[in-house]
Prior knowledge:
The structure holds 2 protein chains of 2 kinds.
Chain A (H helix, E strand, L loop, with lengths): L1 E6 L6 H10 L3 E6 L10 E4 L19 H11 L3 E5 L1 H9 L5 E3 L7 E9 L14 E8 L3 E3 L2 H9 L3 E6 L18 E5 L5 E4 L15 H13 L1
Parallel strand pairs in A: 1-2, 1-3, 3-4, 4-11
Antiparallel strand pairs in A: 5-8, 6-7, 6-9, 9-10, 10-11
Chain B lengths: L4 H6 L4 H11 L5 H10 L2 H4 L4 H4 L9 E3 L6 E4 L4 E9 L1 H6 L1 H17 L4 E11 L7 H19 L3 E8 L8 E11 L14 E6 L9 H5 L19 H15 L4 E6 L4 H13 L2 E5 L12 H6 L5 E6 L4 H10 L3 E9 L3 E6 L2 E7 H4 L23 H5 L3 H9 L8 H4 L10 E3 L6 E4 L6 E7 L2 H6 L1 H18 L3 E10 L6 H20 L4 E7 L3 E2 L2 E2 L3 E10 L16 E5 L10 H6 L12 H16 L5 E4 L4 H13 L2 E4 L8 H6 L6 E5 L4 H10 L4 E8 L2 E4 L3 E4 H17 L1
Helix pairs in contact in B: 7-8, 7-10, 8-10, 10-13, 16-26, 19-20, 19-22, 23-26
Amino acid sequence: MKSSVITFPGSNCDRDMDVALKKFGFKNKMVWHADAELPKSDLVVLPGGFSYGDYLRCGSMASKSKIMQSVINFANSGGMVMGICNGFQILVETGLVPGVLLRNKYLEFICKNVFIKINDKNNKYFKNVNNEVLEFHIAHNEGNYFCTNDQLKEIEDNSQIAINYCDKNGNIEDQFNPNGSIKNIAGIFNKEKNVLGMMPHPERMIDTSLSGEDGSLFFKNLINNLK
Amino acid sequence: MIVNEQVAIDHGLKKDEYSKICELLKRTPNITELGIFSAMWNEHCSYKSSRLHLKKLPTKGKKVIQGPGENAGVIDIEDNDAIVFKIESHNHPSFIEPYQGAATGVGGIMRDVFTMGARPIANLNSIHFGSPQHKKTKNLLRGVVHGIGGYGNCMGVPTIAGQTSFDSSYNGNILVNAMTLGLVKKDKIFYSKAAGLNKPVIYVGSKTGRDGIHGASMASASFDEKIEEKKPTVQVGDPFTEKLLLEACLELMAGDSIIAIQDMGAAGLTSSSIEMASKGNLGIEINLNKVPCRETKMTPYEIMLSESQERMLIVLENGKEEHAKKIFDKWNLDFAVIGKTTKSKKIELYFDDNKVADIPVNTLVENSPMYNRKWKKAKLPKKNKIKKEDIKHLKIIDVLKKILSNPNVCSKEWIWEQYDHTVMGDTIQKPGGDAGVVRVHGTDKAIAASVDSSAVYCWAHPLTGGKQVVCESFRNLIAVGAKPIAITNCLNFGSPENEENMGEFVECVQGIGEASEYLNFPVVSGNVSFYNQTKDEGIKPTPSIGGVGLIKNYKKMITMQFKEINNIVLVIGKTEGHIDQSLFARNVLDEKNGPPPEINLFNEKNNGETLLKLIENNLIKSAHDVSLGGIITAVAKMCIKGNKGINIKRPKYLINEMEYFFGEDQGRYILEISNKDLKKVTDILNKNAVHFDELGIITENELYINDKTKVTIDELSTSNKSWLTNYMSK
Lengths: 227, 730
């Protein structure tokens, strides 16, 4: 399986994603934002970080990068595109997934482990994951997902909500919402579910020595689903 | 503008310093030259009050590749890997503007590290605030934490450990010390020593603006009628540009284009160019019209003294300009050839075709003032007035809860959850433990780092306090299973012109030196911050020690949380029940007199090294050093972290129960071992003459003392975790 990780100026989880993808069997290439052409890929990842310093609005300048036109075309033709954290913010800015990401409710950067409940397994990202609840890691300042009531209805009708913040037993309640996201949303799909944007970083959970191993589950499953 | 003695004094120079400048130049300096002298001869750049004493610190060792004198220290961690690290203060700016002050402190120290070719892999910080009740404290704390996070998070470097304290002596002078560790190949370390003639001098990074020009000394000068228009003297950080600068520099460093490189930190272009020339025993000629400026009509004086952030000065090999420019263009950074190296051994500056400065380099560096300031030996501590009756009525659990929720002991989760501590995917011990630990990417090795200070001990007896901080750092590294290698120090003190403050400095430095010498834990880098004072009142002497150690196999790393029910808990090191200057005495009994706990360097070394042996033999399940709040506080924290209880049976010492549990004797650790290993462990301890007590057995979820007093771990956890969150949300 071939993957591509895009490096924007200010990306800082690009290497971590490269390490994770390779660990689980992807042949990964790093792609520079100013390139026009996307290498042949089964998966494109927009990594976390602070592209363009988060100036103007998180993800907004990166969404206009030269490479992004190719990424958008790739997504529109059914290619798998995953945006993590800042990558999610970039996806939202391109319009590939609906909604916006506001500043965290308590106006502070949060770095910690959270539990997420998989809301939909009818897609290549989460199909065949045995667990209902995974322990992932978040590190962000603007992860407070918001959308209009009409958008929310549409997202729910199409089961585009990928994952929600919850407790270890899968209870999706306010007190387990780290950033104020509407409906505890931690990640969403586009309508066709080939594009996934999510705040948590599975690439930081790939080793028992790190914060945990549920990221390993995610990547192992992902590469199998793509085969 | 005509330069005279008054103008020199307005620049913060002393009368005799000004005469010395005129004498060295054999003429009156012009304003640009005076600015350069005042920047190079100030305390921050010249270490004029501290140099004499810093010379006494041990700086060499088998593992030391580079000691003090470069941008940062470098130590050998084997396999051609090296760690570059340093700590630096940003106290004054952080008090004026906490967000930017702290942010640029973090930015500056990371630049010091990547200037040497190392990729930063971990940040730490030591931050100290006034009394929680003081009206400024909350906003300063919030601003500093946001600033540290804002910069470090954006750079993608994990903040893995730190220290926060509150003490009213910081009411008017907070301390913000930032430390960075970087990883480099031993044969790819870059230095600031220029070499070769006619080599191009390159400016890269952000453009130069009027920010940070000459700080406080200018504010009182009747320099010109437009002084009001000068921008504030606190620099503004741009972590995004720094991230680009980091990547661009490392890309250029992968080749062989660079002869010398130096970041533009304090005193900007002035100190960076002069340091490179001085170390290379060369001259440098700069055309200031070529310096990229972000504001119009900047004068040579302003360009030379600007402290705009995210800039570097490089001496390149001839013919490599195009190659280098391509890299900086790719990262959208300014790149300009602004001058060349010369044989003149002078700094020669040109502007609009005029020579605007012409100063022999040695007058700025070797001939800079050095003072043997007068100092007073610290007074011996007064005897404490604690009476047995004062202690008798106290209930141990009440005291424990009070200590666990004390601002200096309580959990700092509110702070470190705002720092990205997991980016780079190698953080194997997060903040909140004895030391932060990151793996050396792609290897079995890991690096542990801790930052410590004990202002109360240093205040009560500077010599003992100085030793204690080094020992504490040593212990924190050992407690996670790392072999201590070297330290960096940030020496925060009051005015060196005050004999008592200077005495605190001299004696603390002596203590640091003695301990680091004995423990074979040399000082490889550091920084001195004097004048931390408001009116006549200096801060408590606060040397911060950043220690670094190596874990050869990261799977052997130790954490502090209790692991398994029925395991046995030992305390190693002798308990005498020293409560003077303990948290118990100061905050529960309100007794501030008395000496700090004694340091016995032999025990310190022996206990630590024996524990490392036990860890190496896989005999230790968890470990934690005993510090503030004594044995019971250390044990309670291990319970809270591991969500386990303990049944404690106090050894039958003759000392009082309170003294046993809350005394702060040094050189001690709490260890968890499994039953089956007990004999092996005690044999090794006995063989090495390490004193130990059996303290108790791990249980489910309650802390029992002598089968009669008990409290649930949940209750202790709430005491420990709620203070800071409640304080900040009020």
